Amino acid sequence: MLDEVNAQCPVARALQVLGDRWALMILRDAFDGLRRFSEFQKNLGLAKNILASRLKLLVESGLLALQPASDGSAYKEYVLTEKGRSVFPIVVGLRQWGEHYLFEAGETRSALVDKTHERPLETLQVRAADGRVLAAQDCVRKVVRHR
Question: Residue 26: CA atoms inside 13 Å, Cβ hemisphere, count?
Fold first, then answer.
């Protein structure tokens, strides 16, 4: 449970769902097309009990939905919801930060490219409503009430 100060913070609330590394890795794999428990388990090498608890959290949080398998088998599949698909820019931002700061020159790594043109993605930027690129010092946190 969040304390009173953090309860007003969208970052703190998002981290309650996305703050676990395995949650983000599961979503990364879902973006890559994985859908079945066994696929996630094989790709992540994660203990089944931990994977089951993270998948349950992602379903309860509305990022994944459990549905009958698309091939008509008795299996169930985990599919991204609209809420889950909206996490894509967060995953891309983490990926781009990692590419920039956590790899040495010449080191092998995976790359995310535009499927149509097979070219690297443009670096994500934070922009104002008028299109200006903003840095942290250009922003201020403000408590607001939404309807």
Answer: 33
